[in-house]
Write a structure and sequence with these properties.
The complex is a heterodimer of chains A (about 350) and B (about 110).
Chain A lengths: L1 H5 L4 H10 L2 H22 L1 H14 L9 H4 L9 H19 L9 H15 L4 H17 L12 H25 L2 H25 L10 H18 L1 H30 L6 H5 L16 E5 L2 E9 L6 E6 L10 E6 L5 E6 L1
Antiparallel strand pairs in A: 1-2, 2-3, 3-5, 4-5
Helix pairs in contact in A: 2-4, 3-4, 6-7, 6-11, 7-11, 8-9, 8-11, 9-10
Chain B lengths: L7 H13 L5 H12 L5 H13 L3 E8 L7 E7 L1 H20 L7
Antiparallel strand pairs in B: 1-2
Helix pairs in contact in B: 1-2, 1-3
Classes of the chains: A alpha+beta (about 350), B alpha+beta (about 110).
Chain lengths: ~350, ~110
């Protein structure tokens, strides 16, 4: 028993376990953990027993053992209702979906490109909101913990809200201008109207912040922190693999069109002068990716080019994917060129 | 139609609780399974299954004594309930019926 008294389970792991474990299960499981630790200590020595203890603690991280999410979060967030969390998660999921929309299989949709552009821009321009959100969140946490005696306009979040609103309005105007150039005046007017309605509703909420109390936790900084960071991470790490998927998907569709074109040549002795001339003979497959409009066909010497365009980072990188059976691809103005997985297909990145 | 469907691991834990006959708690269940089945199990997996079995009213639990080796923490003893016994019996009968239905040639 001397050994038992000398060796204690790792404190940090124990504290972690106590933090996440449901109070009704805590005593019995903590006893089990300690008993296992001492038995392992006698069998394998203290170092291995410590490792095994940590593994056992991690194995307990299960929904049936942990307390509710509200308990795990610091006190500062405890007055956030389930609805607020759902709203926050839903908005982030919406942004992620919008970013990835042009790369998903489905009929071509111009709106998917605009939505993706808006969501991607929120990841880049929205990074301006991150420091505002971080400073505001610190103030909110201080406010809740009672470290702030008197609330001034900074501590109440009033000035942070105004700064964030100005950034958001500038972003909306910038996006509306892009819509004006790409989709026309109607889209621009709709975007500006939505901005005006949201702004009108926010003004009242911002005014209320002047008289904010210590008890109320404002969830707004969590939006300013999470949305741009998540959008930026998705743009940085997920757009590339997802665009690989959409490219391969469209190429698969393109291979069917290649077969149709080759059939045309076998029957008539020449390649079709345009894609329209095939339409009378056979069904022309479409790329079937929401961000890819159509296949572009042109004769090139004694062969032909079959291509489609997709956007890597919308507004920045355009990708031309081209097929030429003689490998005589003739894309101009590219800054990078890659071989696709399928033979005779190459893709080019253009600014 | 059985009262509850038991997963493979659920059945093992329920059988072990029955084997230990009133002496079943987290550590003893792990040791029993490891010694009888030569299979490593974690405390997390055991706790999840015990919680599930308790929710299904197949086992019941009660606090026992605290010991020094447990840092003065009480054990939570699990015992099989009447519903648990019924489910185990049913599972055994179903398996036996399946075994008995296998043609002798098939296992030669």
């Amino acid at each position: 028993m001397k050994e038992v008294r000398q060796n204690k389970p790792p404190v940090m792991a124990l504290k972690f376990f106590r933090w996440f474990c449901h109070p009704s299960l805590r005593e019995a499981i903590e006893g089990d953990l300690e008993e296992l630790y001492h038995k392992n200590n006698e069998k394998f020595g203290s170092k291995k027993a410590t490792g095994m203890y940590c593994r056992e603690v991690l194995s307990l991280l299960r929904p049936s053992v942990i307390v509710s999410i509200h308990h795990l979060l610091p006190n500062k967030f405890s007055n956030m209702k389930k609805f607020h969390w759902l709203q926050l998660v839903a908005l982030n999921v919406l942004v992620i979906t919008c970013i990835l929309l042009p790369f998903l299989p489905g009929p071509y949709d111009t709106l998917s490109l605009s939505l993706s552009m808006a969501a991607q821009l929120s990841g880049y321009i929205g990074l301006l909101l991150v420091p505002i959100g971080a400073l505001w969140l610190i103030q909110e946490i201080k406010k809740r913990t009672g470290k702030v005696a008197i609330l001034n306009n900074w501590r109440s979040g009033y000035y942070y809200a105004i700064t964030a609103t100005v950034v958001c309005v500038l972003f909306s105007v910038f996006f509306a201008l892009i819509l004006l150039m790409s989709m026309g005046i109607s889209a621009c007017v709709i975007a500006l109207s939505i901005t005006a309605i949201i702004l009108y509703r926010q003004v009242a909420a911002i005014r209320k912040l002047k008289h904010s109390s210590h008890k109320i936790f404002n969830t707004a900084p969590l939006y300013f922190l999470s949305v741009p960071l998540i959008a930026f991470s998705v743009c940085s790490f997920f757009v590339s693999p997802v665009s690989d998927y959409s490219r391969n998907y469209a190429i698969k569709q393109g291979q069917q069109l290649v077969a149709v074109i080759e059939n045309y040549k076998a029957e008539r002795g020449t390649y079709p002068p345009s894609i329209e001339s095939i339409k009378y003979v056979a069904e022309v497959p479409k790329p079937s990716v929401m961000g890819i409009s159509e296949f572009i066909y042109e004769l090139n010497g004694d062969s032909y080019n079959l291509a489609f365009v997709q956007h890597q980072h919308i507004g920045a990188t355009r990708e031309v994917v081209m097929y030429n059976r003689n490998d005589e691809h003739n894309v101009k103005g590219y800054f990078a060129k890659y071989d696709a997985k399928q033979p005779h297909w190459k893709y080019y990145w253009l600014d | 139609m059985s009262l509850y469907h038991l997963g493979e691991f659920e059945e093992i834990v329920l059988l072990t609780v029955a084997i230990l006959n009133g002496e079943a708690y987290g550590v003893s269940i792990i040791e029993e399974i490891e010694s009888r089945l030569d299979r490593n199990v974690s405390l997390g997996a055991i706790q999840t299954v015990l919680k599930r079995l308790e929710d299904k009213t197949l086992v019941s639990s009660a606090f026992g004594e605290a010991t020094k080796i447990r840092g003065g923490k009480k054990k939570r003893y699990y015992t099989i309930t009447a519903a648990g016994k019924k489910v185990l019996t049913q599972a055994k009968e179903q398996r036996m019926s399946l075994w008995n239905s296998i043609p002798k040639m098939a296992l030669k």
